[in-house]
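Large ribosomal subunit protein uL4
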Amino acid sequence: MELSIFKSTGEDTGRKISLSDAIFDIEPNDHAIYLDVKQKLANARQGTHKSKERAEIAGSTRKIKKQKGTGTARAGSIKSPVFKGGGRVFGPRPRDYSFKLNKKVKRLARMSALTYKAKDQMIGILESFSFNEPKTKSYVELLNNLSVNSVKTLIVLPENDKNMFLASRNIQNSRVITVDMLNTYDVLHADKLFFVEGSVEKVENLFKEKI
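Predicted structure tokens:
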């Protein structure tokens, strides 16, 4: 697959770049994508939820009424879950939601996500560029030049660029990452995926080493 390379001003450079079919044109595996996205979202959960059960709330342990003769159900404690202010039955407890996922499954999921974006023509290639200053105004201008200011975007850099990260962090629905941060969730979440020219080779090398 060949894609045109554009400048940060939105102009076509007249050059093209080939994307590896072994990465951007595979048979997608939806279940692998599901598992990878599920793991990322699960790992992001704090798991600090907690409610008090009947043994943990403050209250008298006195038997509140006699066992028989009331015409109603037996009741032994005001802390019973059936009463207002009583403990919760089987409430949430702190837990770890993370789970293990094999590296090969994660790799397959990411290549599947990239394949879907390539087939939907949602991938763009940008000529290498950088910001002299970390200004949000410069990043907004970049999005306007690329006509993607109204959609969710993901820009993949070949290496860390502090000015780019700082300039983009206040922009809603736009994210800047490096190749080593590439993940299935971010790829699928973006409406438009941009690779800065130098990052394409790094992505292909990253996956080819493990194929």
